[in-house]
Specification:
The protein is mainly β. 15% of the residues lie in helices and 45% in strands. It is built from 2 helices and 10 strands, in the order E-E-E-E-E-E-H-E-E-E-E-H.
């Protein structure tokens, strides 16, 4: 799995950050910007690429504020890791919303369901929670998806057994 920091408002570029609270994004060098996925003047996200389709199970978020902070979690099979403009719509249009909400808990584990290659952790576009929302990604839990290769091998074994049986009968 790889993680990519995204800021869809230019400039500045986004940097992936990691601290005791989890993974976040730092998109500028001002004192007001925190190492969280937030939108303090920016449309930030972290995109996780699993390299293949996986089943999403859960994500644990950490927050630093005492007021409810909002999150939006999406799944997609489209490679959006190079998106650097167009706002949050450039990341979320065509993606599947897996979870959205707000909480002031120090840590929140959210159940997910869906099978995708990419997971997008961002903040909701618009709404009353947007100003100052921010969180970190503490952990992700995914499950592997069975590949069709096993079914092909099984069919091949049946075909081989049929040929052997036919040759013995002849």
């Amino acid at each position: 799995m790889t993680a990519t920091a995204i800021n869809t408002q230019e400039p500045p570029g986004a940097r992936l950050t990691q601290g005791g609270g989890g993974l976040g994004v730092r998109a500028d060098r001002s004192l007001t910007e925190t190492n969280q996925i937030n939108n303090l003047g920016d449309d930030e996200a972290v995109i996780f690429d699993f390299g293949k389709a996986v089943a999403f199970d859960s994500i644990t978020l950490g927050r630093l504020a005492l007021i409810p902070d909002a999150w939006a979690i999406y799944g997609t099979d489209a490679d959006l890791t190079g998106v650097t403009s167009g706002g949050l719509a450039s990341l979320t249009t065509g993606s599947t919303l897996l979870s959205a909400g707000a909480s002031n808990a120090h840590s929140e584990t959210i159940s997910l369901s869906g099978t995708f290659r990419y997971l997008i952790a961002t903040v909701p576009a618009g709404g009353s929670f947007v100003a100052g929302d921010g969180y970190t990604v503490r952990s992700l839990t995914v499950s592997s998806v069975p590949t069709p290769l096993g079914a092909g091998l099984l069919l091949g074994a049946f075909a081989l057994a049929g040929l052997v049986r036919r040759n013995r009968a002849a």
